[in-house]
Specification:
Layout lengths: L2 H14 L1 H12 L11 H12 L5 E7 L2 E8 L6 E7 L19 E3 L2 E3 L7 H17 L6 E7 L7 H8 L7 E4 L13 E10 L14 H20 L11 E9 L9 E10 L5 H18 L1
Parallel strand pairs: 3-6, 3-7
Antiparallel strand pairs: 1-2, 2-6, 4-5, 8-10, 9-10
Helix pairs in contact: 2-3, 2-4, 6-7
């Protein structure tokens, strides 16, 4: 059968499987896999059961007991190899009161599913799984190998993918990564640098703060400098294939009590950078600000 006819047949099958695909996504979203803590055993089981029901054998690769990675192959040991890659963990839910619908409910309203991971990235897990299922049901003689790789720990550093690559579990010729692109093919992605910055002070009672040094005040000065010298600059940068660069102050912690001058403060920063930016230069910009303020204090 010509490849165009195969594609048309698969497309028709996928449309018939529409309700089954949605049902799988519902099960995935209802399986809590927020990271931290990153326990993906339940959501991995959902994928494994769907694959097993269609005679697709899955391999479980474990770096940490509660964070399994799922690997499956259709028509193995043939070249070229096409790898479908996505992740099983999600970012935290946050304040439930801010949610219009249960974040683990997978409720569908006017054709839209609401729930943590419904987009990032359990939608791609469902789509990739069911694409493999559709191919398996057709019993096609592929001209290569299709690999499914669904990893844990993507949201906290990509350790699942790193481990699988480092241990040579896969060596694909082509890779499709399931992330949010408005269904457009994306051939570039922003890089990411996470920074952890700490300021120190000297504790004192709040009634006599002049005997202390506030680490929070020092941190505010540093963040203001970052806003002035880095955030303002990157707002003018663009790239034809990606969204603009960005800085996000993700967390801030400081002080031990309201009536005590804080002797320590800490922030974490997420800096997303464009393909042409140099990571070392980006880190250097932050270090220059730190060193300048350290010299004045």
């Amino acid at each position: 059968m010509p490849i165009t006819e195969v594609g048309e047949e698969i497309s028709k099958d996928i449309e018939v499987m529409r309700d089954e695909i949605i049902s799988l996504l519902v099960d995935l979203v209802r399986s809590n896999s927020v990271n931290p803590p990153g326990d993906t055993r339940e959501v991995a089981d959902v994928v494994i059961r769907k694959l097993a029901a269609n005679d697709i054998e899955a391999q479980i690769i474990v770096l940490e007991e509660k964070k399994p990675n799922v690997l499956a192959r259709i028509n193995p040991e043939k070249r070229p190899e096409l790898l479908f890659n996505s992740h099983l963990d999600t970012v935290p839910i946050g304040e439930r009161i801010q949610w219009r619908h249960d974040p683990l409910g997978a409720k569908i309203v006017e054709g839209v599913m609401y729930g943590r991971g419904a987009a990032d990235a359990k939608a791609s897990v469902a789509a990739m799984t069911m694409a493999a299922v559709a191919i398996a049901r057709k019993n096609l003689d592929l001209r290569g190998t299709l690999i499914l790789k669904f990893v844990s720990d993507e949201e906290t550093g990509g350790w699942g993918t790193k481990y699988i690559l480092d241990e040579d579990y896969v060596d694909p010729d082509f890779v499709v990564i399931g992330e949010q692109t408005d269904n457009r093919i994306a051939i570039a992605e922003k890089g990411v640098i996470w920074l952890n910055i700490k300021t120190k002070g000297r504790a004192a009672h709040a009634s006599i703060p002049w005997f202390g040094v506030s680490a929070i005040d020092n941190m505010l000065k540093l963040l203001n400098q970052i806003e002035e010298k880095i955030t303002t600059k990157i707002k003018t940068q663009i790239h034809p294939l990606t969204p603009p660069p960005s800085i996000n102050i993700g967390t801030i912690r400081g002080g031990i009590k309201t009536n005590v001058v804080a002797d320590a403060c800490e922030v974490t920063i997420d800096r997303r950078f464009l393909p042409h930016e140099n990571p070392d230069s980006i880190v250097r910009e932050f270090l220059d600000i730190v060193e300048e303020l350290r010299g004045s204090n």
